[in-house]
Amino acid sequence: MKSNRLYLFLLETLVLTETWAGSHSLRYFYTVVSQSERREPRFISVGYVDDQEFVRFDSYSESQRLEPRAPWMDKMDEEDPDYWERNTQMVRKDAKINIEYLETLQGLYNQSEGGIHILQKMFGCEVSANGNFRRGFKRFAYDGHDYLFLDTETFTWMASVPEAVYTKRSWEADGSFQERQKAYLEEECVLWLHKYLEIGKDALLKTDRPSAGVTHHQYRKGEVTLRCRVEGFYPADISLTWLRDGEEQLQDVEFIETRPSGDGTFQKWAAVEMTSGQEDKYTCRVQHKGLSEPLTLKWGKESEEDKAILQASPLKKAEGCEMLGGVGEGVRDLRPRPFILLFILESHSISRIICLIVGIVIAVALLSVAGVCLWKKMNEG
Predict the structure, then answer these.
(1) Where does the signal sequence lie (predicted)?
(2) Domain holding 7: CATH number?
(3) Are 121 and 177 part of one and the same domain?
């Protein structure tokens, strides 16, 4: 009876769904970290709608419950009174399954008990602007390397390392398991994504216009860097391009991936190196959903529209100004790397948040091991 009510609850969302601007995604990130031999591995689950975290579960938390991470999720108490209890039980079950799977992987890799090992899993779905299923994704990584992923075109598992072949064969041999994977990614996941977008539409479907500025940095005699910084924008999808005499500049250009600002918006910068005196040849072009037309910026020269945006921005052109997270001397290449450890996928902002989560988990694990090695001289993390 409960399952029927849940189905009707989700089905109502399809009737209410509007045409959204751009695609949207629902993703869950699982991280399991083995601790010392004296403690069970830690399991953390984080859920995202687009670039916004909305739920989290931590097996080391006092509550041992799935918790809301977005204000709009408070509406779920009225929309679906059983939601939190039902999903808490589900994520606890997932925690047990994935902790056991981490132990299985240690056996497949002939690793002895103890030590720090990390299993990561990402799964979810994406819908197009009209709300229809676009694609699904499910993949695993172990100790910082790709392990296994699902090809959702053929619904076959692709082993990234020899140790994953056994899992691939056993899962593909289980017809009902494969059917459940397909049904979740193409149907249930899509229904829930529709529901979350409806409940949180004021936050998830908003558009915040970017503010932008160009700063000037001299690092070596005769060589300078112009850095184009944008912030305060939502959604996260944005394009930054450096042009030289109107032509796109690909050489000597460095980027950082889009990062969360901590207030529900995002930030990004792109830098270009040149010989001093060439600055007037370069233009930064910004394209975003919140702009009626591309924004163009030059060092020391802005259009009237650009000036209006800059006046509303906290950004200031200052010699040697620190940019985005305190990046100092020089311009470093921080472009996304392949899918390893941090699950760096299409949404780079998510990867930053996952990086933070994994960093915290590893720090806790390291402190735990140090506590055992140093006896009681250090507290367990």
Answers:
(1) 1-21
(2) 3.30.500.10
(3) yes
| Angle (deg, nearest 10), helices 165-172 and 175-183 | 90
**Same-domain pairing of 219 and 140:** no
- Ranges of beta strands (E only) in 128-281 are 133-142, 145-151, 156-159, 211-220, 223-233, 238-244, 247-248, 253-255, 259-260, 266-275
The pLDDT tens digits of the residues spanning 5-39 come to 444 444 444 444 444 557 899 999 999 999 766 67
Distances (CA, A) of 15 to 9, 194, 221: 11, 10, 64
Task: Enter the tokens of residue 115.
Answer: 């030590």
Contact of 203 with 72, CB cutoff 8 Å:
yes
**Partner residues linked to 289 by β-bridges:** none
Residue of 103, 96, 91 lying closest to 34 (CA atoms): 103
Decide if 148 contacts 157 (C-beta within 8 A). Answer: yes
How many C-beta neighbours within 10 Å does residue 329 have? 8
Spatial strand order in the sheet of 156-159: 67-68, 52-58, 42-49, 24-33, 118-127, 133-142, 145-151, 156-159
Beta bridge partners of 286: 240, 295
Cβ 358 vs Cβ 365: under 8 Å: no
127 close to 134: Cβ distance less than 8 angstroms: yes
DSSP-derived letter for residue 110 is T
Give pairs for 83-86: CB < 8 Å, separation 24+.
86/2
Widest Cα–Cα separation across the chain: 75
List the one residue out of 29, 188, 56, 55 whose CA is nearest residue 122: 29
User: Which residue type sits at 174?
Assistant: D
Are 117 and 143 within 8 A, CB to CB? yes
Confirm if 143 and 120 have CB atoms less than 8 A apart: no
User: Could you tell me the two tokens for 20?
Assistant: 């959204």
Per-residue pLDDT tens over the stretch 288-322: 999 999 999 998 755 444 444 444 444 433 333 33
Q: How far apart are CA 351 and CA 357, in angstroms?
A: 10
Look-up of token digits 């929309």 = 79
Residues 6+ apart with CB under 8 A from 80: 6, 9
- Whether residue 320 lies inside any domain: the answer is no
Do 288 and 235 form a contact (C-beta atoms < 8 A)?
A: no
CATH of the domain at 297: 2.60.40.10
